[in-house]
Write a structure and sequence with these properties.
Elements: H1 11-16, H2 18-44, H3 48-97, H4 106-111, H5 128-168, H6 172-176, H7 193-230, H8 248-253, E1 255-257, H9 266-269, E2 276-278, H10 292-330, H11 334-342, H12 349-387, H13 392-396, H14 399-402, H15 412-456, H16 467-503, E3 521-522, E4 525-526, H17 527-531
Helix pairs in contact: 3-5, 5-7, 7-10, 10-12, 12-15, 15-16
Length: 532
């Protein structure tokens, strides 16, 4: 006998009449199964109690299978519900973050849609699968908006942290933990356009602060480099560390030219801050960065360098004066002077060493030439004595230095005294020259007066062929004697009295003063006494 018992309900019946189709098919399955088993058991000879036990076991297994199927499908329903709840929670949080206060629950909106078909979900025409698909569809669109907003705010926050770290000289991680940065730490709860614009605006503010700080740092670095170059302070260039600082390596390496244009040399660009930028916003072994401490350190370094510059200038000024005085004293040729000065550049230590070497050389030369120079000055003094008609007393006033003849006693101080005395005599000669011119003019008129008196003794001088010329000559001489001579004499008298008042020696009690001292001397005598 055939034992086939399989029976499959039609798909149409299951779709349109699931309960009835299940009952009919289960009844048919039970009947067919029981008939087949009875036939087998009759053939085998199975007792009734065993048949009852096996049928009970079959029914139990069918019951378990149905229960298992129900549990499985209930799990699917629970999973759908859980996923829908999770999606709804994320949707609510996203709407709250984006401030979508007017956003309606997508499922509720769908349930109100009259076009929704009743699929037997028993839920207002909406099944869980439809709820899930509708909720996830709306959530996906909101997720893209949220991700774009978060990416925008994260980019702005990153700029803020980078700028804050650069300005304060700390790491980005340290910057993110700073108190000032806490308002930008948790932004996921507010992703509105206004909040994003607030982040962007703050990022722009920080970037402007960075640009301003960069400009200030570049300007300070250029100033530092300029002074370092002027002072010839270059790091790691020998053992000499005068004026150097550990910061100098960073100062020299912190700048780079803007652009690739090499038409202009670094020297041409030097000093123009718009042609340079900072190598790195953050401090490193070769870059000073733009942090607050960099500003303070650069300002302090500039003050140090300016102090060193001032000190070197003062020292070079002293050395220059000393060298110029020695050149003048030792009559160093101008070609030799120019050769020395042409090799002097800037305020570097090399310049100081050259100056010190030149002073040492000139001091050695002075020791050899001092006696010769003093004797040259004495020759000049003697010539000026003659030109100024200096009296014996006036000349004797310089004997303390003029009469030193031992070469060992002819020091630079003695030479300076001679040079000062020469300057005094030259000044005196310059002052005397107008008076000497008047005296020469007066003496010339006096000579004419003597000549006129001599001519008048000859009564026959106005006779003869040249009498008219002789008469004109005598009349001219007479006018000078009678008119110019009194005027010149009067002018000289006033001038000489003023000269004596200005040049007479100061008389101290008990001191005998030569009466000729202070007078304007002419041919060894006070000229004021001569005209009086």
């Amino acid at each position: 006998a055939s034992t086939a018992i399989h029976a499959t309900p039609s798909t149409t019946d299951l779709l349109h009449r699931p309960s009835l189709a299940m009952r009919e098919n289960l009844a048919h399955l039970a009947t067919t199964t029981s008939h087949a088993l009875e036939e087998i058991w009759d053939c085998v000879g199975v007792p009734p109690d065993e048949r009852a036990s096996m049928l009970a076991d079959l029914v139990e297994k069918i019951s378990q299978l149905c229960e298992e199927k129900v549990r499985g499908e209930d799990g699917v329903r629970a999973t759908f519900q859980e996923e829908i709840d999770k999606a709804r929670k994320e949707w609510e949080e996203t709407c709250a973050a984006l401030r979508l206060d007017g956003e309606e629950d997508p499922v509720n909106r769908m349930r109100r849609d009259p076009s929704a078909k009743d699929l037997g979900g028993g839920n207002g025409g909406v099944c869980l699968q439809m709820e899930y698909e509708v909720m996830m569809g709306r959530l996906e669109s909101l997720r893209s908006v949220k991700q774009a907003a978060m990416a925008d705010m994260q980019a702005s926050r990153s700029k803020i942290h980078q700028a804050f770290a650069a300005l304060h000289g700390c790491t980005v991680e340290e910057a993110s933990q700073a108190t000032e940065m806490q308002p930008y730490a948790d932004f996921e709860r507010n992703l509105t356009l206004e909040h994003r614009e607030e982040f962007r605006s703050k990022a722009r503010d920080y970037e402007e602060s960075v640009a301003t700080r960069k400009k200030a740092i570049v300007s300070l670095l250029l100033d530092c480099q300029s002074i370092l170059q002027e002072l010839d302070i270059v790091p790691q260039s020998g053992e000499d560390s005068v004026g150097r600082s550990e910061e100098d390596v960073k100062i020299w390496n912190s700048l780079e030219p803007i652009g690739d244009d090499q038409a202009e040399s670094a020297g041409q660009r030097r000093g123009q801050s718009n042609h340079y930028t900072i190598v790195s916003l953050f401090e490193s072994p070769t870059c000073i960065g733009i942090g607050n401490s960099a500003l303070d350190r650069l300002t302090s370094r500039i003050a140090e360098l300016n102090g060193e510059k001032k000190r070197r200038r003062a020292k070079l000024g002293e050395m220059g004066s000393a060298i110029a005085a020695l050149w003048s004293m030792l009559r160093v040729p101008s070609d030799e002077q120019r050769a020395f000065t042409s090799g002097i550049r800037g305020l570097g230590l090399d310049t100081l060493r050259k100056g010190e070497a030149e002073i040492a050389r000139l001091e050695d030369l002075k020791g050899v030439m001092l006696g010769k120079l003093v004797r040259e000055q004495r020759s000049i003094i003697e010539d000026l004595w003659e030109k100024t008609n200096s009296s014996v007393a006036e000349r004797a006033s310089f004997d303390a230095y003029f009469l030193i003849h031992d070469d060992e006693q002819l020091t630079s101080q003695v030479l300076v005294k001679h040079e000062e005395y020469v300057a005094t005599l030259k000044s005196k000669l310059n002052k005397m020259q107008p008076i000497l011119d008047l005296i020469a003019k007066r003496e010339s008129i006096i000579d004419e007066r003597v000549e006129l008196e001599f001519l008048r003794k000859d009564p026959g001088r106005l006779k003869g062929r040249y009498a008219s010329k002789q008469l004109a000559k005598e009349e001219k001489m007479n006018r000078r004697v009678t008119k110019e001579l009194p005027k010149i004499t009067s002018m000289l008298e006033r001038t000489l009295k003023q000269w004596y008042a200005e040049n007479k020696p100061h008389e101290e009690e008990g001191q005998v003063v030569n009466p000729e001292l202070g007078h304007f001397m002419y041919q060894g005598k006070p000229y004021l006494q001569i005209i009086q």
